[in-house]
Structure formats: C-alpha cells, structure tokens
Amino acid sequence: MIRYQITSGLYAANPDAWFRKLRTDVNFIQIRERDLPVRELAALVRQVIQTTSVPILVNDRIDVAIACGAAGVHLRAGSVSPLRVKQLAPLLVSVACHNEDDLKHNEGADLAVLAPVFSPISKSDNRPTLGLDTLRRLATASSVPLLALGGITEENAAHCMRAGAAGIAGISLWENQ
C-alpha cells in the first residue's frame, strides 16, 4: 500500500508544528504550501529534503522541484502534461484526478490521486464525493497506481484498498496518527 502525505498548507502559521507533522513512515510527502512565495517555498523544500529520506513532491511547481532536487511534482488538474514535465527533467509525476476524463488525459504520470472519495476532513469541498464504486471503476481503468484522497480515515482506508486503490493519500489522516 502506497502511503502519501500531503502537507496542510499551514507552514507559515506555525513552522515548528508543521515540521513535527511530517511523517517518516510514508512513501511520499507532497509539499502543498500554495500561499508561500516561491523563494520561501524553495527554501522549505530544500530544508525538508535535508531532514527526511522520504521522496518529496512539490505541488504544481515544476521549477521549484527541479531547482531543489525534489523527487517529483504533483500536478493539479488542468496543469501541464506529465509527458512535458518528463521532457524537462526526470521527475516522478503524480496527478490530481477528479473524474474519468482527468485520468485519461494524464499520459506519462507515475501516480494518480483521486479526490474526493469521501467528504474531506481538512477543508470544505463543494464537489460531490466520488465514493467507492467510482474508485473501483477508475482503479480498474487506470494504467498507473491510483491513490484515494478525501476523507480517508484508518477505518475506511481498508475499504479503499479493497476497491482497488493502490494506496491512500491525505492531510489529516497522517496528522492524527
């Protein structure tokens, strides 16, 4: 099972607490700090890379991922194509997927993160939840490992795995363990 931590976006509010929440028992950490200026984001990514052996993915900032030597990048839906990223640098690419079309239009991705499977815990989200049936259908159709995101708990993670997810992703899931 792939375990994929996504940061809270709250680094600037309390850097010490933010660092304490980083996990070492996950397969990937996606640094998702969209409100940080690029220079601060790059400094943070470099610092995290120096303090952990977990592969780091930078949220939607290919330039920062390359400049800092991160393992990869996570692309939001509608971003540049994973194939284009791989022409620029040998990065691991995860992609956000919210429906079947997103999944189909991400050739070259290494991982797909499907959300929201359930109602998110860490933020409000007006999108309808996808549920286990959609997860099952898309996991079967996916050419890359599909991770479940959105409202994932220790209790429902096993349901996601039985539905075909290759792993689970989350923000609050990792913070509460």
Number of strands: 8
Pattern of helices and strands: EHEHEHEHEHEHEHEH
The backbone outline, from C-alpha atoms, is: globular
- Count the DSSP helices: 8
In short:
The protein is an alpha/beta fold.
Structure description:
With 177 residues, this protein is of the alpha/beta class. The chain is built from eight helices and eight strands; from the N terminus they run E-H-E-H-E-H-E-H-E-H-E-H-E-H-E-H. It has an eight-stranded parallel beta barrel, surrounded by five helices. Helix 2 links the parallel strand 2 and strand 3 (56-59). Helix 2 crosses helix 3.
Key traits:
TIM Barrel; 8 helices; alpha/beta; 177 residues
Chain-wise SSE layout:
Layout: E1 2-6, H1 15-20, E2 28-31, H2 38-51, E3 56-59, H3 62-68, E4 72-75, H4 82-88, E5 92-97, H5 100-104, E6 111-114, H6 131-141, E7 146-148, H7 154-162, E8 167-170, H8 172-175
Parallel strand pairs: 1-2, 1-8, 2-3, 3-4, 4-5, 5-6, 6-7, 7-8
